[in-house]
Specification:
This protein has 346 residues and is an alpha/beta fold.
Length: 346
Amino acid sequence: MNTPWELFKQSARLEKPERVPVALIVDSPWLPGYAGIDTRDYFLLPDKWLEINLGLLERFPDVVWIPGFWVEYGMAAEPSAFGTKMHFYSNRPPSVEPLVPDLAFWADVKPVDPQADGLMPLVLRLYEVADERLRAEGLGIKMVCARGPMTVASWLVGMTPLMMALITEPDATSRLLDTVTTSIIRWLQAQLDVVRQPEGILLLDDLVGMVSDRHYRSMIHPHLRRIFDAFDGLIRVYHNDTPCPHLLESFTEANFDVFNFSHKTDIGEVKAKMGHRVALMGNVPPLDMGVRGTTEEVAQWARECLDKGAPGGGMILSFGGGVSPGTLAENIDALVATARDWSPRE
């Protein structure tokens, strides 16, 4: 029988594995609370971090954790390299303050150096140490990740100024996004370089879903495409859980393999618009079902997703977004059981 990771890779290649895999994006919004640990300790104590992430494999052996063994400080790693101010808390991931809303300030800023800037060198060193320890147990870090260009840029200038600048200052915005994109590619490559057998990348950028298709194609698509093109040959997962059905057809040209999207967008509609060009990873509601739902409700939602998205292959059952704080373990079990028992209707 294939491992969950092998099933995931088959689905990412638009194949029909022996059963639909379950994959979940998991990080510090959920894991410290799930493990009953201070969020700061989750970041600061590598042995505890490793114990918690290894525990996921034991408790949920049929789930693929994306990216898995993620060394992260919430959303702070990328903006910290540009000098943003961060605030750390005991019970939630850090917050980040935007720096300067004036795009002229960023006109001549240089791309970051992941080996020296912000929190990035610490992440790289922790990855290096963790990967060595995991390989001693026959495991390893298979995927690394980064926030996308719009999300990172929003931490530099602010979300509202950035969205307005797409209209009022397109040239300056393009220069900023180009610098940020170069930085993201460097950051992903630096992470890949310190793990021994990487097989994929994850890019997260919800802000992209807030723009029109016209502005997406002219202002954002070239940067997303440049990132995904840089890692051809790896499995490329794109997470965007802002409802954006108007962008689905355009996304098929961005050169990613797997799309994790909002539960508010019907998976049947996503499949109809994206065709058999991108694997779909979704889209059970993470809050209403994962946190608040019963196991029966989760199973019903999951079956409906599978009925619409799984025929023909290229389907990965997941929440329509990351694992929300407070997600119940039994509701994850319900996803796994539903995927295991599901078969196409005759």
